[in-house]
């Protein structure tokens, strides 16, 4: 039995365990990672393991969790929750407004950071209304993933495409006189509103804000806004380190700790801030990075990418269709970063053979690979983060629970983008 077959079997078993026993996710992922090393699927070199972990994502999540801790302690999420409640007649409209707000923010900063910033507001709202936060946080997560492909800075895959195709920030909006992928994503986001109206139509409880929370300190809110501004500025600076976004989040987190200590002289707050980091979620992501690198190293991702290209042949519409929907299916189960990195040069080669501009296929790849992560709770880092936050608050999310929201979101948004890109760029 060759390494590819062993890797595929272990990978499938890992997903079966995670679907059947959600609480075993961490053990399933790390068990497979260890087996990958023992079988030689993943190199037996600790320095290599450290190199394949996406430290940028890990630092972003850890740093933002600390900032969010101070943000929650300042009671600003409660005040924002009251403002939102004042504008919405029912719980359904609260969820819709929160998800659209999350999507708008996520177009300009990382999806995980968006979830970490906005989910506390959602949790505060649900606590006030005495309802389960599961629908709201899942809607926030999938909306964040949906909008990640809208701009150059919204998602790691967008940054990868921008660097590979030498595209700047404005070319995601307009390029060669045509509307860019931004408009395809926004059309998909707009069409998810009827989906949410259907999914949450029974959440028709009236809402109202009965009290006015007093905010205790404005600095954590400034820090969160500072994260957004710094991440956007960093995207325009050439030759920055690959971990620049993570460094920004960690530095601002340390700044929050320093300001809080200077103002309150309470060292126990620093301990609480560090303990607020969801280390289980970080461990799950770290293990997934190793597992995905293992199936990449033995050529499984290359095999899938080349299979997509071969089936498409010279029929551009068929090729485009396979790339979009194949990317949706593939990224529902694995991190889309190694997949997109593999597909970009393949798409370039196919485009050259067919004598066509590659942007139709580039945008199809990006929309499919980014939105496909919404189908499962482990298809994107933002989903893992949202599910982890719910678990911290005593709510377990099953695969089926997530897919009831993620699947219709994905199908509607991808179909809208798929048709828009085809008719605009063909």
Automatic annotation (TrEMBL):
It comes from the Bacteria. GO terms for cellular component: plasma membrane. Coiled coil: none annotated. It is found in: Cell membrane. Residues 31-361 form the Citrate transporter-like domain. GO terms for molecular function: arsenite transmembrane transporter activity. The chain crosses the membrane at residues 5-20, 26-42, 49-72, 92-125, 181-203, 215-237, 243-261, 273-296, 316-334, 371-390, 402-425. It is a multi-pass membrane protein. It holds the Pfam family CitMHS. Keywords: Cell membrane, Membrane, Transmembrane, Transmembrane helix, Transport. Belongs to the CitM (TC 2.A.11) transporter family. This is Citrate transporter-like domain-containing protein.
